[in-house]
Design goal:
One of its GO terms (biological process) is fatty acid biosynthetic process. GO terms for molecular function: 3-oxoacyl-[acyl-carrier-protein] synthase activity. Belongs to the thiolase-like superfamily. Beta-ketoacyl-ACP synthases family. This protein has about 400 residues and is α/β, with parallel strands linked by helices. The protein has two domains: about 240 residues, 3-Layer(aba) Sandwich (Peroxisomal Thiolase, Chain A, domain 1); about 140 residues, Peroxisomal Thiolase, Chain A, domain 1. About 30% of the residues lie in helices and about 20% in strands. The chain has twelve helices and 16 strands. Strands 1, 2, 5, 6, 7, 8, 9, 10, 11, 13, 15 and 16 form a twelve-stranded mixed β-sheet that branches. A two-stranded antiparallel ribbon has the order 3-4. Strands 12-14 form a two-stranded antiparallel sheet. Helix 11 links the parallel strand 10 and strand 11. Helix 2 crosses helix 6 and helix 10 runs parallel beside helix 11. About 5% of the residues have low confidence.
């Protein structure tokens, strides 16, 4: 990247912690947010566990006018955006008309406002069109978080939405960094939250990628001999990314780190005989960052918890960094996979890990001898950290990698 894209603010809404401090303490302490689904009756479904953001009441955080026009995933995103902007000390209410065009919003979404849309379609089928909310016209849409955040904060610069399933959070970050390099002073990439509602999990159940275990400690076990699918969840993270020079001009005194490399690939057609391309995504990201494999201190894994996908990921990591050549972790075992929210939360976690010199653990997992990686299990590992790679993959062949590193900020 030709100019520094630094992270000046974080907003986290996670199943195991609301806010950056609570989330980081829970993650280092091995606290899980996975439990039985409570937001609907899941007894008829094979999968009964999820990572839910417990105790969240939108009316405690947002104006009453926003509640009836937004899905839960948008409400979580709006709260995360508020927290991230406050953390970065960005006062959008004081922005001039000119500076508003220097602030953009990039989101990622895996399903849009699914819960809102499902409810309104049920009203249509059972009661008639007059019972369908006018807000259905946009509340279900993939780009709704971009729109609602930009409207709420007057952010009128280049914006967009990325749709690439679990890889979407990293793709949103990569696109936001491009905007910053191309002249946008500040960009808010937010990975959209994912609801653990009925229809959302259906394709994953059919494909066998969703765990049907009813034991929270044994349901999501990436790189384990007992791996049998993932647990879904809701939540995510929002990062404020700024041009380093612009951040210095407005007097920023601390940053979390730099997004210095991004790479994305797409896997070949199944049964084509060609190799998966996750390794290539890592190599592109490292080249984009101008870094070598030996410069990386930790890898945050995608952690699909499907044996054949775990094998692909472990192979890609060991081929790039060497057998057991770099510590690997997957703290999402404490939250579930948050669809497009998961990877951005991993990036936030990587930045917090670098700042603290602590690699959070991959809980409940006993590493299978089939994988030649140095997986951090049982408890956190204290070690100096300067740079991390975060990996994410989406259903259908999406692969993304992001490199983050510390910044000497004076």
């Amino acid at each position: 990247m030709t100019s520094q894209a630094v992270v000046t603010g974080l907003g986290v809404v996670s199943p195991n912690g609301f806010g950056v401090t609570d989330y980081w303490n829970a993650t280092c302490g091995g606290k899980s947010g996975i439990g039985r689904i409570t937001r609907f009756d899941a007894r008829r479904y094979p999968a009964k566990l999820a990572g839910e953001v417990a105790g969240f009441n939108a009316s405690d955080h947002l104006p009453s006018r926003l509640i009836p026009q937004t899905d839960r995933m948008t409400q979580l995103a709006l709260v995360s955006a508020d927290d991230a902007l406050a953390d970065a000390d960005v006062r959008t209410d004081e922005a001039t008309p000119e500076s508003q065009f220097g602030m953009g919003v990039v989101t990622s979404s895996s399903c849009g406002g699914f819960e809102f849309g499902q409810r309104e379609l049920q009203n249509l089928w059972s009661k008639g069109g007059q019972y369908v909310s006018a807000y259905q016209s946009f509340a279900w849409f993939y780009a709704v978080n971009t729109g609602q955040i930009s409207i709420r904060h007057g952010m009128r610069g280049p914006s967009g939405v990325l749709v690439s399933d679990q890889a979407g959070g990293l793709d949103a970050l990569g696109h936001a960094c491009r905007l910053v390099r191309n002249g946008t002073d500040l960009s808010c990439p937010v990975a959209s939250t994912r609801r653990s509602a009925r229809g959302v999990g259906s394709p994953h159940l059919a494909s066998g990628s969703l765990s049907v275990s009813e034991e929270p400690e044994r349901a999501y076990l990436p790189f384990d001999t007992d791996a049998a699918g993932h647990v879904p969840g809701e939540g995510g993270a929002l990062l404020i990314i700024e041009n380093a020079d612009a951040a210095r001009r407005r007097g920023v005194t601390r940053v979390y780190g730099e997004i210095c490399g991004y790479g994305a690939t797409f896997d070949p057609r199944p049964a084509s005989g060609r190799e998966p391309t996750l390794r290539k995504a890592i190599e592109i990201a490292l080249d984009n960052a101008g870094m070598l494999p030996e410069d990386i201190d930790v890898v945050f894994a995608d952690a699909a918890a499907i044996p054949e996908l775990d094998e692909v990921e472990a192979k890609a990591i060991s081929e790039v960094f060497g057998p057991r050549g770099v510590p690997v972790t997957a703290p999402k075992t404490m939250t579930g996979r948050l669809a497009s929210g998961a990877a951005a939360l991993d990036v936030a976690t990587a930045l917090l890990a670098i700042r603290a010199g602590v690699i959070p653990p991959t809980t409940n997992v006993a590493l299978s001898p089939d994988y030649d990686i140095d997986l951090v299990v049982q408890g956190p590992r204290h070690t100096p950290l300067n740079a991390a790679v975060v990996l994410a993959r989406g259903h259908g062949g999406f692969n993304s990698a992001v490199v983050v590193r510390s910044v000497d900020w004076n």
